[in-house]
Amino acid sequence: MTKKDQEENLKSILGPWPNTYTFTKSMAERTLRKRRNPKLPVLLIRPAIIGGALKEPYPGWTDTISAAGGLSLTGGIGIVNWIHGNSNNIADLIPVDLVCNHILVGNAL
Predict the structure, then answer these.
(1) Average pLDDT rounded to a whole number, residues 72-97
(2) What is the mean pLDDT of the chain?
(3) In the chain, what are the domain boundaries?
(4) Burial of 51 (0-12, 13-18, 19+ CB in 10 A)
(5) 32-59: per-residue pLDDT in tens?
(6) Given this model, what pLDDT does residue 90 score?
(7) Which of 22, 68, 82, 87 has an alpha carbon 20 to 30 Å from 2's alpha carbon atom?
(8) Distances (CA, A) of 31 to 18, 27, 34, 38, 39
(9) Are 40 and 84 spatial neighbours (Cβ–Cβ below 8 Å)?
């Protein structure tokens, strides 16, 4: 299939998924379910947008200043004072330390 064919057929290739990101995540999860060894535990954690830490190692900690980390940083130090948006929308962020803690607990089960 050529690149042109892929672009022309993208909607039919993706099916119900809105983009290639969600499509490939689904492919990976389906492959794990299909091929997993029942003796080997598998944990899938699908956080939304991971943001700065809530508590650990300290509030606001992040290892990157891109995406949500950059927005949090620039807002926190006063560079960004407002963002145009819809007040009915939800910023679906979860602190990085909560994601890490859930991974650790999940692996301990």
Answers:
(1) 87
(2) 88
(3) 1-42, 43-109
(4) buried
(5) 989 989 888 888 888 888 888 999 999 8
(6) 85
(7) 22
(8) 19, 6, 5, 14, 16
(9) no
